[in-house]
Amino acid sequence: MKNYKYIWVAIFTIPLNFKNFIFILFLMSSGLSWTQTNTRAKLDSFAFYIEQSKNNSDFNINTRLSYALKAKKIANKLDLDSLIIKSNFNISQLQLHGGYNDLFLKTSRENLKLAMQVKDSLSIADIYNELGNYYYRQSTDSAYYYYHKSEKLYRALKDYYNTASVLLGIAIIQKNEKDFTGSEVTSVEGINLLEDVKPDKKVTHNNINRTKSFFYNNLGMVFSELEQFDESINYHKKAIVLKRKLDGDNKATIENSLNNLALAYKNSGQYDLALENYNQILKNENLINERPAVYATILDNYANTLYLLKDRNQLPALYFKALKICDSTGASYNTIIINQHLAEYYYDNHKLDSAKYYAYKAKDIAQNYHNDDLLKSLLLLSKIEDDTIAVKHFNAYIKLNDSLQKNERSIRNKFARIRFETKEIEQTNKRITREKIWLLFISVALLLAALLIYVIISQQSKNKELRFIQDQQVANEEIYNLMLSQNEKIEEARVLEKKNISQELHDGVLGRLFGARLSLDSLNKSSSEEAIKIRSKYIQELISIETDIRKVSHELNTDFISGSGFLDIIKTLLETQTKAYKLKYKLDYNGSIHWEDVSNKKKIHIYRILQESLHNIYKHANATIIKIGFSLKNNVICLTIEDDGDGFDVNKAKTGIGLKNINARVDEIKGKIQITSEKDLGTTVKIYVPI
Fold first, then answer.
1. Collapsing DSSP states into helix, strand and coil, what is residue 627?
2. pLDDT, tens digit, for every residue of 125-134?
3. Packing angle, helices 121-135 and 101-117, rounded to 10
4. Cβ of 407: how many Cβ atoms within 10 Å?
5. Angle, nearest 10°, between helix axes 387-504 and 529-562?
6. Inter-residue contact 676 to 650 (CB < 8 Å)
7. What H or E segment, with its residue span, contains residue 541?
């Protein structure tokens, strides 16, 4: 990855042209290709080391562990949680098989923490299963606890094969703790799950049949303990049939089932069938070398069957042979039942000393385990010993029996409590899930309600805005109509005035001109001094008429310029509003604005701005006089509104609806507004409107 970063540095320091662009693309593709190749090589190495760590035929446990640690190192470099969890799990399995119990627990707990962080349910289930395997021979309730947690996760993942495999461990624990009914139910459930498992590359038909055969074997032992020997024999036969179909060398597991079947026959009184199965096992000449402890157990069972058949020819030699094998292999636990059988044999032959010797020997060894074998030894001694001692052993038997029953009951209660707590947790999780769903539903409902309310409010606001715009439009139309009406009145006044002027010119000026013309015509024929004086008089009259005409012309011209109707409307507004508000006003207008060139839209907005300003001054300013000014500069109309009111702080003042309307109108006509105000000195508003 470091080289890849250097490539990017190089790219950003190359001047960009076409050739360099091609070179950059080459560098980028080379960097990506190098990264992918490097990652692929690491993944290949990881797979190789994992495979080597599982090769138990060529490597010992320590060599396999070293390969597993190398795989973990690569997983850490790749920083892939899935590979780290996989490598850790592989290491923990090797540590467990190698007897490194402390390291196994440490690795498993660290791996469990990581798997929980990334919510890898399958890995969590695998780790729980492995912890159950670890505690299987050490702490029954701990093993049951981890198996149970693992089973629930596998079941949730619909991994029925692994669910059934964990149920097998639970069923065996239940059987060992004499929860025979529970073990039967668990075994049947496991078999039913296996019926639904479809074979694939990971779970073969062979795997399914092997696990199923173990369930049948467990059921055979359960029914044997319940003294339902026909059922026991039936299940052991089913187990043997499946085991004979399995791939590979399954001689050992078949022999175990044959031994269990023979034991069921023996316990049911079918001694000949029991001997037949024992002989079938003992035909394996390699058994004594391959599994000496098992050979000794089968030899003892074979001898005990002969004893029950009252065939004593090979006894006690077979017992001693089995005992010698156990002593040579250090299988002291297996010697308990052999010593018990020897005690029974000698007691039956009235050799009490030998019977007591082997009975006490069995008891002494069984005391290290404090289980059913010790119970049988105490019962045997109560039978062999004399009165007082027999009573003592029998009392010890009763006490131990009560203790074992109490302990078994306690363990079964623990199992029930684990199941209950797990069920309670599941119910709690379901309740939490339901609550989350309801919370989500309520949240969505509230969100939709809020959205709906927002839409309604927004729509209402838009409707108000539309109504406001409509009202404004109506008001603008009214103002426009008012302006048109005012213009019509002005135009009527003009027409009337022109008519009056025309009449004045016709009746007055023209009559005088006509009279003067006639008089001058008559005087032109005379050149007397009197005629000259009269002509001079009429010339003065003509000069007077000229002055009158000039005056009329000037008045007509003045009326044309000043008669713009918009200003009259403004004057009417000022007069009406100030009178209503009891204010004085002053209008400053220099006549430089040709309102005919200004659009009606701008005139309407100017009118409404002035109207709103007057209203605001009346409402807030406490003013006595208002000065209104119109001026034109650089083709921009400047409207100035000044009052002598209270004034306000422009920066701190809240923008009311009136000022908002004014700003909106100014924006509408692409104008600008400037407000200056001081406390007790009044306010000045300047509005600039381009023509």
1. strand
2. 999 999 999 9
3. 160
4. 14
5. 170
6. yes
7. helix 529-562
